[in-house]
User: What shape does this take?
Amino acid sequence: MSGPSPTSDTSFANYVHEQRFTTALLGKTSKKRPREQDEVDRPYQCSWPSCSKAYPTLNHLNAHITMQKHGPQRNPSEFKHLRKIWRKRRKEA
Assistant: This one.
């Protein structure tokens, strides 16, 4: 793509703006819309008593467990059956 390089006399901010604007003109900046709350599958639930939180990834669940001190972190092997069901459901859809 032609245009100024970040090392020329134009500022880096102008360079970045020009690149984004040029890319926008070419139609390459189409973004996905964020998923709605009810569209996100949340199979990983916290097992702490009186905690009803659930997360879309095991990593997010483990971050919650660590920050809230809700016991030891969970392992992927604990959710093997859930992932199997989830994969099967995605294939059918």
In short: The first helix runs from residue 12 to 25. The CA atoms of residues 11 and 32 lie 30 Å apart.
